[in-house]
Amino acid sequence: MAAVGLLFVGAVLFINGAMLLGWIDARSAAPMNFFVGALQIITPTYLIFTANGNTDTILQAAGLYLFAFTYLYVGLNLSFGLDGTGLGYFCFFVVLSALVYSWLNFTRFHDPAFGVIWLYWAFLWALFFVVLGLKVESLTKYTGAVCAIEGWVTGWAPAFLLLTGYYNDFKTQLAIALAVFGVVVFGLLAVTLRPGKYVTAERVPTGAPAPAG
């Protein structure tokens, strides 16, 4: 069930990245944030209630609420034109939590691929914090590009591997590929999307961003 939610996390990250890049109108991104936010509330709630006290299942399911609340927060901000500062500081909370979940996946769950994926999400939500919480709006375009790419590599791709039953066969290779991809691609984007090319403050949607999981 979590894999189904992850597939649509990929969709909302791509949509929100496209919004930050200025490809789509900000308000048109709100419905997808509400849809996926609601799904990410239902999924972990079901998993927790059916866990029969399994602490690992509950621990993993609890992390999904971090993203559910992010997407619902984004949807409300976009719908009502709210200031994004509160969302930005919530993203800082998500960053610290994502780092813990990354460490847990490497050490407790023995899942290196999701250990790397949680690092991806920590990086993306850190960008959201900087853009929205600290108002460094010159990073908006870079954040949008990272967000859109993460929709495919941390949502769509692993979701289909899980849904088709191939994930366990390739999780080590996926971890290595994602680690290399992230360093190379996001590093190149940082060089390519120079500050002079970033979206100006007047074009930043008040309620943007996306994240995860």
UniProtKB/TrEMBL annotation:
It comes from the Bacteria. Its main location: membrane. It is a multi-pass membrane protein. The chain crosses the membrane at residues 6-24, 31-51, 57-74, 86-104, 116-134, 146-167, 173-193. Keywords: Cell membrane, Membrane, Transmembrane, Transmembrane helix, Transport. InterPro entries: AmiSUreI_transpt (IPR003211), AmiSUreI_transpt_sf (IPR038523). It is found in: Cell membrane. Belongs to the AmiS/UreI family. This is Transporter. The lineage of its organism: Bacteria, Bacillati, Actinomycetota, Actinomycetes, Pseudonocardiales.
